[in-house]
Design a protein that fits this description.
11-stranded antiparallel beta sheet, Jelly Rolls, 190 residues, 1 helix, globular, mainly beta
């Protein structure tokens, strides 16, 4: 019989908080992309071929709020962003979630993906499109300083198009701490 083995990979140290991204709960419309290196995933126990089923962000300060979100994930060779227009096009990613997230307490906040994502062993991009037309309240997240691994568009008058995002308002060394929960088919059990 085969069983699914679960792995939870944590990237980030929770040493700093008060970061409003990757989900901008305080502006209308926001779009972010965060890069997580293959070396960070394998150091956390991930192996190529695992399916990511849940993504978690650590909410340091929660003030409530419902956020409509679309989440994309992709395997990429990109290890850092080089400019405010260096987005990864959504056509090379998979939409893994379309729904709402409610931040009502501190701690790890889980978003169960509606479409599991297969990690191939390369670097991972997580893109989040917040589609609300009005500012919301929600959460400040913990983050770790990591050289130019997050791009952010925020405060616009219309939703960013993930296929062709506008110039980012932030080109950042702050990257949200994340947990990636994944499943892998284990060897046959005797």
């Amino acid at each position: 019989m085969r069983v699914n083995a679960q792995t939870t990979v944590t990237i980030g140290t929770h040493l700093s908080s008060s970061w409003a991204y990757p989900i901008d709960s305080y502006d209308a419309y926001a779009y972010s992309q965060s890069l997580y290196l293959a070396s960070e995933l394998t150091a956390g126990g991930a192996t190529s071929g695992q399916q990511i089923t849940t993504v978690r962000f650590y909410c340091a300060t929660a003030v409530g709020g419902i956020n409509p979100l679309t989440i994309y994930m992709g395997n990429t060779a990109k290890a850092a962003y080089t400019s405010t227009s260096d987005w990864i096009n959504s056509s090379s990613m998979t939409q893994v979630f379309n729904g709402s997230a409610t931040f009502s307490s501190t701690g790890w906040y889980s978003i169960t993906l509606t479409t599991p994502f297969t990690w191939t062993g390369s670097n991972l991009v997580v893109a989040i499109d917040q589609t609300s037309s009005s500012p919301l309240t929600g959460c400040y997240f913990t983050y770790t300083v990591s050289a130019t691994k997050q791009l952010i568009y925020y405060g616009g008058s219309s939703d960013a198009n993930p296929a062709s995002p506008p110039t980012a308002g932030g080109f950042n060394t702050k990257r949200a701490d994340v947990q990636l929960v994944s499943l892998q088919l284990a060897p046959l059990q005797q």
